[in-house]
């Protein structure tokens, strides 16, 4: 696995752009991200073939209050093809070490492959944590 980029989780959205097409799969790793909304929010992902046009967001976490940090990863298989599947789990993991189950699985279509990934909350902004993108 090769690290492509790390972003601090601050602001309305996080975008990994100009993703190189030299890998087979991508792994998006979420470490301790949280939001500042007064209500529960879901972490969402959007995909783009060109870094400008993004598809509709899909939730990859259940809704949680602002003070609850999220951990986990999603793998985007065959990201440089026209379609594929993503599999993973992102959730509030109590304790360290600890585990908690939530499926973040979805099918995707992005003609020309994925060149950008954007993360955002359904409400509020990022206020803590880190997100990394790696190629496999």
Give me the secondary-structure topology.
Elements: E1 2-8, E2 13-16, E3 25-35, E4 43-48, E5 58-59, E6 70-77, E7 83-91, E8 106-109, E9 116-121, E10 126-135
Order of helices and strands: EEEEEEEEEE
The number of helical elements comes to: 0
Q: How far do the termini sit from each other?
A: 5 Å
Content of β-strand: over 45%
Average pLDDT score = 94
Shape: globular
Number of strands: 10
* Percentage of residues assigned to helices: under 10%
User: Helices and strands: which structural class?
Assistant: mainly beta
Low-confidence stretches: none
Largest sheet: 6 strands, antiparallel
Major sheet: arrangement of strands:
1-10-3-6-7-8
Q: Mind telling me the C-alpha Rg?
A: 14 Å
């Amino acid at each position: 696995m090769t690290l492509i980029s790390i972003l601090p989780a601050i602001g309305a959205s996080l975008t990994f752009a100009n993703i190189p097409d030299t890998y087979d799969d991508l792994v998006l790793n979420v470490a301790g991200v949280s939001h500042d909304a007064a209500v529960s929010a879901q972490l969402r992902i959007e995909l783009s073939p060109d870094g400008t046009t993004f598809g509709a967001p899909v939730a990859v976490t259940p809704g949680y209050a602002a003070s609850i940090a999220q951990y986990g990863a999603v793998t985007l298989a065959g990201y440089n093809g026209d379609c594929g599947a993503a599999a993973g789990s992102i959730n509030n993991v109590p304790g360290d070490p600890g585990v908690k189950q939530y499926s973040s699985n979805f099918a995707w279509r992005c003609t020309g492959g994925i060149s950008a990934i954007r993360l955002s909350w359904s409400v509020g902004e990022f206020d803590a944590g880190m997100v990394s993108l790696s190629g496999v």
